[in-house]
Amino acid sequence: MTLIKDKLQNIKLELIELGVCEGDNLFIVADFIRLGYFRVNGLLSAQDVLQVLLEIIGPNGNIITPSYTETDYIWGRELPHFDVNNVPPNNAFAQAIFSLSEKQNVVRSKHPTNSYIAIGPMATDLVGWHNEKYLAYAPMVLLKGMNFKNLLLAMGEDESKGLSVLHAAQEYLGMSTKNYLSGLLAAKYKSSEGKTVVYRRKSVGGCTLGGKKAVGYLINKTKSKVSKTGRGLSILVEWDYAFNWHVEMLKNDRGYFKCHDKACKSCHGSRGYSKRFIFFWLKWIVNIL
Ligand SMILES: [Zn+2]
Q1: Separation of 84 CA from ligand 1 center, angstroms?
Q2: How far is the CA of 69 from the centre of ligand 1 (A)?
Q3: Measured at the alpha carbon of residue 16, what is the angle toward residues 148 and 52, in degrees to the nearest 5?
Q4: From ligand 1's centre to the CA of 211, what distance in Å?
Q5: How does pLDDT run across 177-234, given as a tens digit for each residue?
Q6: Is-contact 131 190, C-beta < 8 A?
Q7: CB count in 10 Å sphere of residue 216
Q8: Which phi-psi region, left, alpha or beta, contains residue 107 (left: φ > 0; alpha: ψ -120 to 50)?
Q9: Where are the domains of the chain?
């Protein structure tokens, strides 16, 4: 038990060393396997780490994280059913926040496929309005100008798939509605009139492998830092700084963050990211015939 406590205390010190501090507003994605902290199960482990983060940021800080749920292709026979109170988020960190719903100021958005969950005094403003009328990454786009930081917990550098702001920048520039999967993924939800409705997801950020190009540019600058947390590397970067950089790069070249896998449908077969997407699909058709 002492060993587990020591590990947790070390993670706390490493987060402080990374630059997480009192009053911080954090958009967090986490990889608990790389973090290397485990107590009994994934949820308890995530709850412990969440507690450490809440201790550091204090009562004035806020945390927001994706609490996405399952989708299927629109032609799927049994579409998943979203219910904001009863369908748990698909990742342990969001589940840890969800488990505090009764006790603390926790709000989860009602978006049928891409809900977000937030904890802290700004939770309602951050996600309370986000429902099926908005695009998938709308709460991330809103963070611009709100003094947030993006924390990739144990997901840094070599293993990085890119910063969360990438999807916010894609949506801000209207690219995420031009993914090849836009309109093809769906889930059911209960409307405010009590009817079960099929929601088709319009905005898809897609492949993030090319997003790691950002890490090379943004680390070791004054507004970002990378350091060890548990067994992994974490990145902490000022949201606005990273968001603006991604927007500029995409404005200059919408294909800048495409990955190197020429078979990647998201990067090379989406009109949002590739001018030559038609040729990709022609080649794809020839290959399957
Ligand atoms: Zn790709």
Answers
A1: 30
A2: 22
A3: 85
A4: 9
A5: 999 999 999 999 999 899 999 999 999 998 988 888 887 777 766 788 888 888 888 9
A6: no
A7: 10
A8: beta
A9: 2-288
